[in-house]
Amino acid sequence: MNADFDAEAFARDLDAVRARVRRDAGPADLAHLRKIEAWGRLCSAAGWATTWVAPNLFSAWMISQGRTARWSTVAHHVLHKGYDRVPGTPKSRTSKGFARGWRRMLDWNDWIAPDAWAFEHNQQHHYRLGEDADPDHVELNIDWLRDASWPQPVKLAVLAAFATTWKFSYYAPNTLRQLRARQGKKAAERETLEPLSTMFAKPELWRRCFGPYVLSQFALYPALYLPLGPWAAFSALANNLGAEVLTNLHTFLIITTNHVGEDIHIFDGPPKDRAEFYRRQVVGSTNFKTGGDLNDFLHGWLNYQIEHHLFPDLSMLQYQQIQPEVRAICERHGVPYVQESVWKRLRKTVAVMTGQADMHRSESPSATEPEPEAERAVA
Known about the structure:
By secondary structure, the chain is mainly α. It has helices at 7-23, 27-50, 57-79, 103-107, 114-125, 138-141, 143-146, 152-163, 166-183, 203-223, 230-255, 274-283, 293-298, 305-310, 316-333, 342-353, 371-378; strands at residues 265-267, 360-362.
């Protein structure tokens, strides 16, 4: 860290941005959410309207893009309370109403249980970013592949197989086991968690995650095309399966790469205060190309990862508005602000995941309270 770094001034500048943008939240934020949500719905509609013709890339891609948008733009920001403070937001688009009960099938029908995602991601990952307790700490999670003595082509093949299935093989069971640990009154620390592999034998995983998704996506929806004939139903199933592969690859590209690379920091312990928390969110994250609704839509709004980790409870429109200012603040205070194309970040991520590169480890400035203290510091 730069010896001249003024932590208090850095925090004050960022606090001012957050206070202003929160104060200015209004109808434009909600209208923007509706627009982006409509784009995702239109993608899904285009895919399902054409899927019966024959197995084809267009239908699969449209269905995939709709699913990706549903997770990364709508569910992600709504469950982070991004619209809770926006005047006029309906309950269904607040963190307490979205995907609750029967609305799950309407709002966010996916492999992942919404409450499990909200705990694992919103709390454990965001407030333990880059620590050993971070459930999405890529370098630790994939140490078995990094340490393997396999040839690089074999490692790449294994990684490709993981990328095509990771919502099923990683996110659904990992989020649920984090939630189970909390409900069991155990500390959600890496060493106390049950092995991920054992989750696949848990009836709860199949009842809450796998069952509803598989039955609706791969049985019910294709069956709706049976009146058009067996070929139409088969085509719908084939395109749906293709969309699943594409969705996994797309989300792996825009999510896994957010906090990985030899230029991205990881940490030995919790932050000591708000300023240190802010600094960690910047040096422990990376942005992709930003600006423009279409570009951001295709990136799932995960191209604003630095701003999102600094202020998790803002709207998508607000991230667009504050990104240039946040970058300027970081540059003024000498805090490294990494922003590259998602393809460059993918190469750096693969290097870490296959053991060809290591993350940049920073020593903890203080051994203070763990996650709850950090959460209070930024509330």
